[in-house]
# Entry
Amino acid sequence: MSQHGLLIDYEFCTGCHACEVACKVEKDLKEGEFGIKLAEIGPWKLDGDAWEWDFLPMPTQRCDLCQDRIDAGKVPACVHHCQSLVMEFGLVEELAKKVVKPRMVLYSVQ
# Structure
């Protein structure tokens, strides 16, 4: 059986929270509940004038990759509403082939 996953290229995530909001609306989640939660890492100073400040959308245990949407032939709400286009939904085997740089994370759910 093929398993679906979510590939996130967090190098280009802008931290807009659109994925969180879309998930909350789709799943009717209450305040403090998340299906996907944006983690903010940084900022901290690197060398010279360089800084690191990253955002990483992280699916929580409530995430089922929007199974109802998948069954209807749609992509998960977070992917559909990602303004930076850093999220991709598909089969884990296919997404794994696209992990070509260190700031990419592949998630799957059981």
Observations:
- DSSP finds four helices and five strands in the chain.
- The first helix runs from residue 18 to 27.
- The chain has a mean pLDDT of 94.
